[in-house]
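User: Can you predict the 3D structure for this chain?
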Amino acid sequence: MASGLRLVTHRVGGGAGQPVLDADNGEELVHVQPGVSIVLDNLPPESPGTLYISTRQVVWLSDSDRGKGYAVDFLSISLHAVSRDPEAYPSPCIYTQIDTGVEDDESDGVDSDCAEVLDLSKISEMRLVPSDPNQLDTMFEVFCECAELNPEPIEEEEGEHNWVFSVDQMVGEVAGTEHEESEWISQNSSHSIGYSNGDHDLAHNVLQLQINDKRFEDAEEMDSNNDKNNNDHH
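Assistant: Here is the predicted structure, written as structure tokens:
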């Protein structure tokens, strides 16, 4: 489930510090980019800080205020892209969309009762603006690599079909004319037993066997009729 953007107030190490990572569960730091400003929604940019990209999350920490930082899990980032269009934003940046788990009309990062209160759970856009635009491509590549490490969980749909058949089931289902058999494998080849088991030719061979068996039966019947007619003439 999307957790959205969150505040980071705790760091480790001296100086500006570094984010706390969940090393016990395998989280590793992948990239550090100093001199990055962060822009949340349409708010003014924060003073420059340092960007940390780990195998699970993106963390920005202010250089001037040790108590200010933001983090978002890759599972909550629904889109990330390089933006160099000055009409979209004056400075080249990494643009991200954040899944907040709320409806669009409810997503308003600034509390209407107090303009100074920022509700991070409703922030749906984040821009990361490096002081050196030449670093954008590297940052984007790291984003892509780490995003691939965090695929969105796939929920099983209700009534999901089980497309693995036994040979007997498959032959029974396709009984009929040669045309019907050809049409069935054409429309359902991606769900046949051959394809599911990594041998697509198996399904075709089973069907072809049934077709040949039918033709063999017809040939035997024709031969039997011919023999009967010859005996009648004698």
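Residues 111-115, 162-167, 177-200 have pLDDT under 50 and may be disordered. DSSP finds five helices and ten strands in the chain.
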